[in-house]
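dumping this here so i dont lose it
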């Protein structure tokens, strides 16, 4: 192919093709037409021949084919074909064993199941991102219990979390770099699933999705969405109506079981949702107001949660609050599901086997676009969906 990098991984999916490069943790989604063009370049590697063949297969003129191919190549030149492409800014890693620290501004202990973590906050941004979400898990420290100690700090403009086991009976462990991210927000999103992983030794993640998750009658629903889509507001309403809460903000999927794992962190409720949720949660009025990224937010403690092992995802619903819009729950195909997951944001280990496993999982779960404007109607539709006996994974 013209300008093709030395190594590109290819993953056929229903409705298209997913590409990845080993040096960059990004997945590139090609629809069926773009996938056809990609394969034509692999086969012919000659632009005039590709234009002629593409025009014939798509039943369009060669002039139209040439224009479409030129636009596609221009797009690819800035992404999958870009010689120096990187997904994110490079981060200079400090030595996790010997960072120079002043006194921590805050030291707190938290518990997930029976595992305790002592967090030492050296950076105010990380403190602001994490402390309100971790509040439901805050515990008094007991010196006799094994504790994982995690230092949270900034170095060379990036944000880090470094852990080690506090020695007991002469035992010790080497420090482990848990998080290395360019922003405090990204560091928070990466650390919360890591705490759950550390609480269950041996657990590995298939993927982490920017999503909420809840369950009803033992059936789990994933709610992936961009920020400001109404995801947390809907999750809070579902929780009030008796749905089990698994997580908000980040949903971690266990690699071995494909279960969505409970993450018992507080829900961040933005100011525009306070009034609509106050009839369900009168306590919102008395909760502290936190300023975050020029927004006013309150943090709501989760209610009923399932066991630590989690539940298998029965469906994915991509919610979007549209004021005054008619409610609509629409089934989407596998390729659209992958596009929606990419828009929402997700992470999966960047190796061929892990990517293939993630793509197979994402295609196996029924998925829906969900537009809503009324919370009561939205809760009713989600309940009916999870109670439907015909809700079965495809394939």
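and the seq i came up w/
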């Amino acid at each position: 192919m013209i300008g093709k990098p030395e190594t590109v991984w290819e993953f056929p999916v229903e409705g298209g093709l997913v590409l990845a490069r080993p040096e960059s943790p990004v997945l590139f989604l090609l629809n069926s037409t773009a996938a056809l063009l990609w394969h034509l370049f692999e086969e012919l590697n000659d632009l005039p021949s590709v234009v002629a063949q593409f025009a014939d297969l798509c039943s369009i003129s060669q002039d139209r084919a040439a224009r479409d191919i030129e636009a596609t190549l221009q797009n690819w030149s800035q992404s999958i074909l870009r010689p120096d492409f990187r997904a994110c800014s490079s981060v200079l890693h400090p030595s996790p064993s010997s960072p120079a620290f002043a006194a921590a501004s805050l030291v707190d202990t938290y518990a997930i199941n029976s595992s305790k973590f002592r967090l030492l906050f050296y950076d105010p941004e990380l403190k602001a991102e994490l402390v309100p979400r971790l509040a439901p898990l805050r515990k008094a420290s007991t010196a006799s219990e094994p504790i994982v100690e995690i230092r949270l700090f900034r170095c060379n403009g990036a944000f880090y979390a470094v852990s080690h086991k506090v020695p007991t009976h002469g035992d010790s462990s080497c420090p482990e770099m848990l998080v290395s991210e360019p922003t405090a927000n990204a560091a928070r999103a990466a650390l919360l699933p890591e705490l759950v992983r550390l609480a269950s030794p041996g657990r590995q993640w298939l993927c982490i999705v920017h999503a909420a998750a809840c369950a009803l009658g033992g059936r789990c629903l994933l709610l992936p969405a961009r920020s400001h889509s109404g995801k947390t507001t809907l999750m809070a309403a579902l929780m009030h109506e008796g749905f089990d809460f698994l997580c908000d903000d980040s949903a971690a999927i266990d690699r071995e079981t494909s279960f969505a794992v409970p993450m018992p962190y507080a829900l961040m409720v933005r100011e525009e949702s306070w009034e609509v949720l106050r009839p369900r949660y009168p306590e919102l009025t008395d909760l502290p107001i936190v300023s975050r990224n020029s927004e006013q937010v309150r943090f709501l403690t989760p209610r009923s949660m399932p066991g630590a092992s989690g539940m298998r995802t029965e469906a994915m619903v991509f919610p979007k609050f549209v004021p005054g819009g008619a409610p609509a729950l629409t089934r989407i195909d596998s390729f659209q599901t992958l596009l929606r997951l990419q828009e929402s944001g997700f992470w999966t280990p960047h190796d061929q086997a892990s990517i293939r496993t993630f793509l197979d999982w994402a295609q196996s779960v029924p998925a829906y676009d969900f537009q809503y404007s009324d919370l009561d109607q939205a809760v009713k539709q989600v309940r009916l969906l999870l109670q439907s006996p015909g809700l079965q994974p495809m394939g």
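The chain has ten helices and 22 strands.
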